[in-house]
Each structure stands twice: as structure tokens, then as C-alpha cells.
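Hi C.,

You asked whether I'd gotten around to modeling the 142-residue construct. I have! Everything is below, sequence then structure, no commentary in between.
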Amino acid sequence: MIHVRVLTEAKRDMVQHLGRGLIVLSFLLLIIMAGTIQKAMGAGSVEAGGKLYQTRCTPCHGPDGKAATPTAQALNPKPRDHTDGAYMNQLSQEHLAKVLKNGGPAVGKSPIMPPNPDLNDQQIDDIIAFVRTLAVPPYSGK
């Protein structure tokens, strides 16, 4: 009976260790998936992006994103209206990041759109997160 009891206790210990291992593994997978989803959706802060947008983008695109400023009206071509959801919602995170970092010519757009090489990836994600809030109809993350 002692051998059976020892074997049963060993099996129980093994099952407990496996159970703990599965819990840890599941937790790690959840963290990885959440990070991947957040990155796919853009990990930017709308609040921080709004502040950067006000200093970097409003002279041409306006505080509301409609590109109706006197500066915008004087430019040819006109700056993009960021509230135009039919257009803006089709642009990928990568496309918008490329425009912000490298300027309009990087994506075949206006040479008047300046590059912002001094912005780090987080700041670019923040601006994109803010710009996404301007679109009408709203951006759905597709």
C-alpha cells in the first residue's frame, strides 16, 4: 500500500505542477496577445497626441483637423482634411507613421508636408491616435 500511496502522491504533485505551469503559460500568452492587439490598433495616447498635434500640425491642418486655416488656404496643394473619414479611415498605421516621420514625398504626396525626424515612435503613435479621433465617420480600427 505504501508504494501505491507514494505513486498517487507523486501523480498528484505532477498534476499540480502541470496545472500551475498551464496557468503561467496562459497568462504569458494573454500578455503577448494583448500587446500584439494594442500594437495593431496603435498604442498611442490621444491626450499626448493632441498636444503634439496642436504644436506640429495645426498651422496647416487647423486645431479641428479641417485644414481651414489661412495658412492652409494659401498652400497648393491644400493640406489633407483629417476629419474626412472616408479617406483617413482607409490609411494604415504604417502609412500615417511614414507620412509623419518622413513627410509627404515619402508616400507620393505633397512636398509641402514636412518630415518630423525628431519624433520618436511613441510620439508618432500618439499623434496618429489623436488624428484617428477627428475622422467622421469615426475610425473603427479595421
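If it helps when you're writing up: The radius of gyration is 25 Å.

Thanks,
B.
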